[in-house]
Amino acid sequence: MLKLHRFHGGLRLDGHKTESLGRGLQQASIPGRLFLPLRQHIGEYNKPMVKVGNRVLKGQVIAANPSLICAAVHAPTSGTVSAIEDYPVAHPSGQSDTCIVIDADGKDEAVEPTLVEPLKLTANEMIQQICRAGIVGLGGAAFPTSPKLSRGKANGIDTLIINGVECEPYITCDDILMRHCAAEVLRGTGYLQQILQPTRTLIGIEDNKPESIAEISKALAQTPLTNTEVIPIPTIYPSGGEKQLIQILTGKEVPHGQLAFDIGLFCQNVGTCVAITRALEKDEPLISRVVTICGDNIGEPGNWEVRLGTPISHLIELAGGYGHAAGGHLVMGGPMMGFSLSGDQVPIVKASNCIMVMREETIPHTPGYHDECIRCSKCTEVCPAQLLPQQLYWHARAKAWERTQEFHLFDCIECGCCSAVCPSQIPLVQYYRAAKSEIRTAQKAQFKSDRARIRFEFREKRLLLKKQKDEERRRLKREALQKKHAKPGAGEPASDPVQAALERVKQRKKSAQEESQ
Amino acid sequence: MTSVIVSSPYVAPGNTLKRLMIQVIIALLPGTLAYAWFFGPGVIINIVLAVLFALAFEAGILKLRAKPVMPHLTDFSAVVAAWLFALCLPMHSPWWLVLVGIGFTMVAGKHLYGGLGFNPFNPAMVGYVVLLISFPREMTTWYLPTSVSGETLSLTDALRYSFGNVDIGQWDALSSATPLDQVKTAIGQNISISEIRSSPVFGEYGGKGWEWIACWWFIGGLWLLLTRTIRWHIPVALLGGVIGMALLFYLVNPEIYASPLFHLLSGAVVIGAFFIATDPVTAATTNMGRVVYGLLIGLLIYVIRVWGGYPDGVAFAVLLANMCVPLIDYYTQPRVYGEK
Asked: Are residues A300 and A380 in the same domain?
């Protein structure tokens, strides 16, 4: 039996998981119009590969970028590209972003798949296939999977960790996926093992999901996977955070400034495993995902397999519409780490694990007003990164950016535990997010101004050099000319002809005067 | 439909300032009642006066500072500060003494620094120390426990003390130095501990009455620990500091140095450990820092009591330690995840 470890702090929260688990995994219908943001991952922007008016097939690449840290976007169904414009997207700032709009034709015609036997592929071929499928981490961070796999493979992996923890309240999309697609999760795990060659594999699942643990264990017994274990872990938020799960399962901490694969560990979410399975076995790109829809203002909470680009309004309609009152407060993600959406026209993207439809009254924080910090340190007690949130808040509020970094601002994982326990109801995480973005903006500006300064200095130097060269050339030329002129009249300077003419005129005038007298 | 952007988390707050303050008030009740039981209704009059004055000052200043009045008044932080301040006063203090002290507590101690959360010094201790230095006669006229003096003051008598034109000192029969004071004076006159212990103001271990009140403060403190209103670090370190120092010197010479139990059960050590030093605003915030902070207060209490100019040193010790808090916090930062 594996010895489990504890991470610092954390919270025991009401799970609210049962509400959305009652109806199994439902297939969402395809909406008439889909909105696909060009970037749905952490990394570089994609460029559109289609033009307005083009007909696209399900699975066809519609946006891509050859850059390494990138994931292509595929058409989720067949139809016509009707616009490539800015639309509201799922982003904490509520901003708009460029989307490719597809008017579905209802035929759902797919690109002809190229089927291969995944077991016969080399690791690099598998990574390329995963890259082509546009797969990103489906746990929430949406980091492109193929570069992570390449780096992991290059570093050598000792332990592969499959993350089925799903620690945040309300969200059940991974739970439902493990219950309904256990075999696919494990086949994906097998492919990861094939790529990374780990010595052992641990599948971590929180002990509030006994059905998932049973399903995965049952399916595991029927697979040829070796050195693979299902590990039930205690239900403490945020045990599903990558660093926390690593700490629970291995007792190791990812050193400051490094990533998990630097210490031979590799984490992947169960949803990503299923996506990998489908990409390798059926040549199916990432065009749909499981989304939990829940909250106290939705008719029928549940889990839906949704095509990416589906507007949330369509999903809400499928889930029985708004409950008590139309509208309400929409949150993407869970209650701890999610963010408010500007409206229900926002589309589902690769990172959308959950849509919470809440009544405006049940949202606790009134923006704009909170009590002052009384330094009670409840936040310190619960911080899984072992930070001093109240000191960070103090410096973030004073805009003392350097001090915030001294207090390890960038080690904050934004889990929200500190905000949840604060007796003064200070939205601490919001302060940290704002501070981080200010610092990043300043760093970018600094980088730009540094580059501009270096360019300017180089230009000045170049111009000065050119000037010196020109002067030198002119001097040489002048000297050469002087030498040339000096040769014929060497010695006496030539008499001035003007002066001589004037003398002559004077002489003539003088003689004329003398004559007249 | 566009909803207002609100930052996560979206869970209902489990904790509020008001709840914390109410826990402190609940924890103060047993000790306060015991205090009144041993020393008469003057204690309660002090508390009621102090709370009323404090709320008036708080409301006035909030108005001057153009801050919302009701949300701050109803967080009960002023009530807790006033209550703690009132407990430091001698029973039967005149009303103006309470007024001046509370004025300094609320105005100079709290709001001049920016209000709740911004004051570097414990406001109740600021008010108390100002009085101690400015009105030494009034502040050192303590009364005997009713069991010793045999006199039980009625409520009307007590009110006459507070509001009437009664000159203190006129009631010599009732007033007396506190046990801590007597020990200090006696040691100064080369009288040994065992000799002064025969005085009627001494009880089993500490001062008569005082030792029982300390026990009730302790029970209130346990309540704070159980409800996780405070953590154990500061009280344990503070009590450890006092007991450690007292034990060390008691073992050296028990005739000059009083026993650890005497120090523990006299004066304000227990209430200081659980209620005063644990004021989160002015205390250290890291776990290690809290241990250092508590120990520092404990050592200072003993040093001031034994070698300083005042019989008890809790207020001065707390204020001195408050000054060290930024330094303590800076050098006791916990190891961050992922750091060696």
From this structure: no
